[in-house]
Amino acid sequence: xxxxxxxxxxxxxxxxxxxxxxxxxxxxxxxxxxxxxxVVTHDSFAVSDQVLHEFETAHNAKVQILKAGDAGAALNQAxxxxxxxxxxxxxxxxxxxxxxxxxxxxxxxxxxxxxLADIPAxxxxxxxxxxxxxxxxxxCLNYDxxxxxxxxxxxxxxxADLVKPEYKGLLVVQNPATSSPGLAFLLATIADFGADxxxxxxxxxxxxxxxxxxxxxxxxxxxxxxxxxxDRPLVVSYATSPAAEVFFxxxxxxxxxxxxxxxxxxxxxxxxxxxxxxxxxQPELARKFMDFMLTARFQEDIPTQMFVYPVNPAAxxxxxxxFAEKPNQPAQLPDDVIDANRDAxxxxxxxxxxx
Length: 355
Known about the structure:
Blueprint: H1 2-22, E1 35-41, H2 49-59, E2 61-67, H3 71-81, E3 90-95, H4 99-104, E4 108-109, E5 132-144, H5 145-150, E6 171-174, H6 180-193, H7 198-207, E7 211-213, H8 216-222, E8 234-238, H9 241-248, E9 258-261, E10 268-277, H10 283-293, H11 296-299, H12 302-305, E11 309-310, H13 335-354
Parallel strand pairs: 1-2, 1-3, 6-7, 6-8
Antiparallel strand pairs: 3-10, 4-10, 5-8, 5-9, 5-10, 5-11
């Protein structure tokens, strides 16, 4: 019996040795640890976990979202860091009000992502492809449908209407020095009335009892009539805000309580861009992420995450976007004109309206 155990034990040893000798001399190396891609962006950036996970799984990556304040503050931080020492790999969120400043800082490498050729030309503002379009939206006036119905007053149709006596004390706007929609609305007035006449228009708004708020949240949630907290039935917001009201009601609303003022020049077209930092630590992964952001998968996530429109025309919109209207003729200004005059325009506005 003892000999049998010794014999079988020897057979096991020989078999194990045979298996080891038959095993490949160079077994496959285990998968490396995920590379970390740092995306620098503004506080309003959002993407669903599932969509981000799909990219991470496909490329053995970990995406770190680094939020750095509003769009202007985030860009300023990147400019201060300089091209030699970028705060991340990708920047998402330069809009057309800051595009020229970003390009002049020479922070980004030229890269035309896959799918860029299919994006409409109206959203492409950089021929060098250092900053490429990702989404767009419209800053518009929202109005309280029920309030105007009860007052038997037609809502305004154009910016010029806002200075009429019947709209006195009805409007709240954001400070362009502290608010992105506030700046966009200021630019809309400049595009509509001209750089030599816009201050006259704002003085008329001031005489018509316009209220100035420091930011969008305060204006929309604290001063609007539809929020139940304020007395202003006209607020500078976004053309997608009525659709967002339906979405966030979780089935309680079948139609939005607000509408948009969509007359010619009353809305300002905003386009958001993304780019790859020069000297990025993960340049190849950054290029793959730029490609991914223009795919239908990522683009179709944008409307329900950031409530703006995808630039990819193949991306489908969610059903509730039937309430997200588009103006026929939005206000626009050349990017270089905005960059050359933005600070002076804001300073002059501050003197005329706040002091």
